[in-house]
């Protein structure tokens, strides 16, 4: 993974005719840090990757993998990542039968009580 990110940083930087010094100034890092990222010796942290994607005007997916993904977007308000299941799950749990029955009773009696 380090090599892919480093290759992408170098590729994007060269496409825009920018130097390592210029990129270092934009990110408040040393030129040596940029060089180490590009060579794959080190990997920038997530926050720096987000800043890099904005500087180069590319998606974070493209910066990290070199592949532009166009899959469905996950709404962080609705889903949460479960590392045990290695997938995103809904924040709201589905109602089981007992919860559904209680909700029906509440709705039925609230309608009856209002009238």
Summary, kept brief:
The protein has 115 residues and is mainly alpha-helical. It has helices at 2-15, 20-27, 31-39, 46-56, 60-65, 97-114, and strands at 79-82, 87-90.
Description of the structure:
The protein is mainly alpha-helical and 115 residues long. Helices cover 57% and strands 7% of the residues. The protein has helices at 2-15, 20-27, 31-39, 46-56, 60-65, 97-114, and strands at residues 79-82, 87-90. Helix 1 (2-15) packs across helix 3 (31-39) and helix 2 crosses helix 3. The chain is elongated, with a radius of gyration of 24 Å. The N and C termini lie far apart (64 Å). The relative contact order is 0.10. The model has no long low-confidence stretch (mean pLDDT 78).
Shape by Cα distribution: elongated
From the N-terminal CA to the C-terminal CA, the straight-line distance is 64 Å
Major beta sheet, specifics?
2 strands, antiparallel
Mean pLDDT score, rounded?
78
> Radius of gyration over alpha carbons?
24 Å
Order of helices and strands: HHHHHEEH
**Beta-strand segment tally:** 2
Blueprint (SSEs and pairs):
Elements: H1 2-15, H2 20-27, H3 31-39, H4 46-56, H5 60-65, E1 79-82, E2 87-90, H6 97-114
Antiparallel strand pairs: 1-2
Helix pairs in contact: 1-3, 2-3
Question: Key terms for this structure?
Answer:
115 residues; mainly alpha; 7% strand; elongated; two-stranded antiparallel sheet; 57% helix
